[in-house]
């Protein structure tokens, strides 16, 4: 049975934060369980989130909730084990909606993952994500 793989020791990085306002729009807002807070990226062609897990995990699903109008039409997942280069894991195509969406893919064992957001629906390339969860099992 899968469960959330993101914990307090998961290292989280993002491509940008709107107006550098990490309090209101920072990366941790995606993981706090509060539906009122979000990560809001700054402008840019490609945005991304990286997660470095404190232990090896088997990833099989990503759950994500965008703000409609500030979504991504294509997401690429890359991952690797410690000491390796990132390689392609999966890609998925979210809908432009404010609903929570789930994307399952072939179970992959990794220590680090990067989710790349392309073809963002906002004219300036901004993203707004209220929830992001990575599901699977600890190894």
- SSE pattern: EEHEEEEEE
Under CATH at level 1, the class stands as Mainly Beta
Kindly, what is the distance between the CA atoms of the first and last residues, rounded to a whole number of angstroms? 13 Å
Class of secondary structure makeup: mainly beta
What's the rounded overall pLDDT mean?
A: 96
The tally of beta strands, per DSSP, is 8
CATH superfamily: Galactose-binding domain-like
Count of separate DSSP helical elements: 1
Describe the structure.
It comes from Salvator merianae. This is Nuclear receptor 2C2-associated protein. By secondary structure, this protein is mainly beta. The protein has one domain: Jelly Rolls, CATH 2.60.120. Strands 1, 2, 3, 4, 5, 6, 7 and 8 form an eight-stranded antiparallel beta sheet that branches.
Explain briefly what this protein structure is.
By secondary structure, the chain is an all-beta fold.
Please give the structural blueprint:
Blueprint: E1 3-4, E2 11-14, H1 22-25, E3 39-40, E4 47-66, E5 72-80, E6 87-92, E7 100-120, E8 128-138
Antiparallel strand pairs: 1-8, 2-4, 3-8, 4-7, 4-8, 5-6, 5-7
């Amino acid at each position: 049975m899968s469960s959330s793989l993101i914990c307090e020791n998961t290292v989280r990085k993002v491509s940008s934060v709107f107006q550098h306002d990490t309090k209101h729009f920072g990366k941790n807002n995606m993981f706090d369980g509060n539906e009122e807070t979000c990560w809001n990226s700054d402008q840019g062609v490609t945005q991304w989130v990286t997660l470095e897990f404190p232990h090896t995990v088997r990833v099989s699903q990503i759950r994500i909730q965008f703000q409609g109008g500030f979504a991504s039409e294509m997401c690429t997942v890359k991952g690797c084990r410690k000491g390796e280069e990132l390689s392609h894991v999966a890609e998925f195509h979210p809908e432009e909606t404010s609903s929570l969406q789930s994307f399952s893919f072939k179970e992959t064992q990794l220590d680090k993952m990067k989710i790349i957001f392309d073809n963002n629906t906002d004219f300036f390339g901004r993203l707004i994500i209220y929830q992001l969860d990575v599901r699977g099992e600890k190894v």
